[in-house]
Amino acid sequence: MKWIYMVTLFLIVSCGSSERVITNDGSVYKVKGDRFYNKGEEVTEQLTDIEKKRISSILEKRLEAEKLAENKQDEIAKALKDLRDKEQELKEKQRQLEDQINRRQEAREDFFEVKKELTSVKNDYQELKDKGELSPKEEAKWKKRLKKLEKEVKEAELKVNN
Q: Measured between alpha carbons, how far is residue 142 from residues 85, 110, 133 in Å?
């Protein structure tokens, strides 16, 4: 695992990039390739191997932490995108459910309206029939009208139940 970090560090350093490193004692070094700079002056030859390793180690740890932070940031961004997608999906489902509720409510209102009309027409028909005021032709018209309304009631009831 450490080998991977060393290769990563080598690749970053060999690409000509320079990295700033702040040591625990507050010294600021600029690492460019295998060269070390302090206050703009090269200090590679003045540093001991232990100091160079310590500075490289600090740099490696920082780069590793940056990589972990970047990976974590990517995970968070992906999770956030997934949550936003899920939110949109849920909003769409909610909209569909609200539409369905509205359609059912309208169907229910239509059902009661048609049923009320059927009851009223039945009462009118029965009243005229009981008085004997209907000719056979008129009675056929009333029956046709009643059948049509009964059919509408059945259709409205189906819409309520679906």
A: 58, 22, 12
Q: Three-state SS across 12-29? A: HHHCCCEEEEECCCCCEE
Which pair of tokens denotes residue 44?
Answer: 């590679």
Give the pTM.
Answer: 0.52
CA distance 104 to 47: 82
Instruction: Name residue 55's amino acid.
Output: I
Distance, CA of 121 to CA of 1 (rounded, Å): 88
Q: What does the pLDDT look like over 119-161, one tens digit per residue?
A: 999 999 999 989 988 899 999 999 999 999 999 999 999 988 8
Residue type, 91: K
CA separation for the pair 123, 127 (Å, rounded) = 6
